[in-house]
Amino acid sequence: MSDTTKRFNRRQFVAGAAALSAAAVLAACGSDAATAVPAATAAPTKAPAAAATTAPAAAATTAPAAAATTAPAAAATTAPATGGTAATTAPAAPAANSAKAVGAINYWHHFTSDTEMTGMERVIAGFKTKYPMVTLTQENIPNANFMQKVTAATQAKTLPDTLMISADRVNDMVAMGAVRDLSDRITAAGMRKNFPDNRWQAGTVNGKTYGVPAFMFVNWVYYRMDYFKDAGITAPPKTWAEFGDMAIKLTDPSKNRYGFGLRGGDGGEGWISTLMRAWGSPIVDDKGKPAIDIAKTTDAIKFYTDLFTKSKAAPPSAPNDSYAQIMTAFKTGQTAMVMHHTGSLKEVRDVLGDKIGTFPLPAGPVTRITDVTPQYNGISTGTKDDKLEAAWAWVSQWTEVDAEVALLQETGYFPANTAAGMDAKVTGDKIYAAASESLGYGTIAPQFVGNAGWQKQTVLPAFQKVLLGQSTPAQCAEEMAAGLKKATA
What we know:
This protein has 489 residues and is an alpha+beta fold. It has helices at 10-15, 17-20, 114-130, 143-156, 170-176, 183-188, 197-201, 225-230, 240-249, 269-278, 294-309, 323-331, 345-352, 388-397, 401-411, 418-421, 424-427, 433-441, 451-467, 473-487, and strands at 103-109, 134-140, 162-166, 204-205, 208-209, 212-224, 337-341, 356-359, 372-379.
């Protein structure tokens, strides 16, 4: 991220906190994208504490299932090839000092689904083994309320010791003074060696790194291999134009079957950002200033919305469909393709088994955009000095090969650590090939203060109006550009 990225000072941030607290682009931490933040602070949902103690107790208990989110970006990197030998070497970074890692710490996160909670239980189990003198209490907060909770806790000086940091929220958390600079600890641990530079990019502001990569959101497409075969389609699409043609060919209203599940409801705004850039329009320049190309954005929106408004290649419910609806439609056979990230793999695979395949996002007319977004963990500014070693131990645990592979197996969240990406459990399963390929050229979506609010408050409603026939693609592009100018003013 450019050191010139625009930032608010703390007073400016607090004044605009409500607008900035919405989640953005990627349908992320959890299966779903965050919903809009309510006007009043909602009480967080608590999962029972998962303590890392000397007792051999089980890890975290499962919280009620619900979806959550995150968001996307801009700098290509090199990832390990799909093939490779198993990673049997040491973890990503030296373990924290177990003698000093003592005491009780807490962790705020927005995992809510059963698969996410199970994955975290496995991470906690490994942590308990390595650091028996640390007691960890975890609390899950619905993603839609997460930034409200962090903002209020920052002002009240009641922050947790450790917390999850989504890529689109790093700037906001830094601006309000909620998270610690971890640069020196990361360097001292030698942690960067197994993480390409772009894994740190979104977690770094003005040269200081505030988040440790825990896992990756890798956008891809699920498809029904049996439907493709029935339609005479022998290979997945390579371009968005081919994708559109296939979506139309796969549509058969008489069977209540549609080419793809278009996400026009909550979380759908992220795909607009992807398509804009694939058609050649930037969102902001390297100084965080608005840089939308109206003509190219219009073309991207027209292509995408025409598949619904003209070709009828998506279900009639598309303008209101969010995560739950698009995934239910895919799992029940109503749609032949659906776009999401790897975090929903286990859920989809448990239902459809070997009927599904995956492929990378297609290339646009100008470039190929696939967002590969790190999810970070960090240490808050409220953590007392005598808890820092225990907090660092917990944050570091997520980078271990065993922890990252375990989380992948339970959720589909792809490893951020390249050593974990070369583990035999990853390279030996062909379903992951599309994600491994995408990591080779994937980018981190533009991150700037005001991004989350702009996505949720401007992009989504403007997009929905086109789907509903209340606006045109050109008007949508103009509305998005005007909203971006206000969001970054």
